Amino acid sequence: MYKALDKWFxxxxxRPRPERVSGPLHIVLCxxxxxxxxxxxxxxxxxxxxxxxxxxxxxxxxxxxxAEGKAPAHTFFFPIEQxxxxxxxxxxxxxxxxxxxxxxxxxxxxxxPENLRDTLRRGRDRLAEAGFLSRDxxxxxxxxxxxxxxxxxxxxxxxxxxxxxxxxxxxxxTGCYGDFTLPSAPNPSQTRTINRIYYAVDTPAPKSHxxxxxxxxxxxxxxxxFLLVQGPLxxxxxxxxxxxxxxxxxxxxAGANPPTAQRLATWLDLAPRLPGAPHVVFVKLHTHxxxxxxxxxxxxxxxxxxxxxxxxxxxxxxxxILHYATARELVNIVHGLEQGGSDPGELRDTVYRMLP
Length: 356
What we know:
TIM Barrel; 356 residues; 10-stranded mixed sheet; alpha/beta
């Protein structure tokens, strides 16, 4: 339960407490799905899983809206090494109907920088041609990223599941606007930096993102800095094993760990805020929505209850204001705050806009 504790316990213990805010707290909620419909499945089963999303997701989100009137958001990080034309076509239609977008997910091992660069470029271009991804103000295609098996920048101890130690630079050079892999605990690839939205600079060593500079208002990123968006990581003291030991909270929505009021309270305690903008908390969650075990939560009553709880919790907006966001929208809000903005609802398209 407490694997990788050596990486994150001391940063958790000595974490800074959030600044108090005089007005309501804005909650930016983002669900990042390591979406693998072909995991342990043949093509027929994968298409059946897609069909479940098409029929059940509208029932789960029906009637729920955030402060701007937007429905619950979902970001599919699609494994580009598992490309299937029919799945991509149906995913695109799904995203057009809902507040949903798709970005890049990649599993690789024993890779080389040259092959990784080519793989990312091909995957980026294919997804853009299929109607996904976004553009920056100069017209360049941009994408978000989740690393398969958690091993970003060859961070798995002893190597494996990657092999490329300049991966952050390659991601940045091929148009990646940010990584959403973390937290990875209990996986040993977990970083010492936790509960942050921050910038790392690539180094010749693995796990260049173990530490970095927090994103903050008034400071724009340097050319060599790469953005990482982490979800909350720590202990849930409100939910204890055997009534004694606190459970690890790693922001995963799973079949055995559905979203609850207790977990929401813990997320709000741990989730990143930008120095200079303490009125906005970024709750980035992750899940594996191609796995039937997790689909039972995401596409069933547990998730609908969670949306109802959010609606009740935010109420009239006097204490909390909810903003459902895709991964792209979350990063735009971060950059908007860096540039002096204040209201997250007005910052969803600050830099990266969806392809027409």
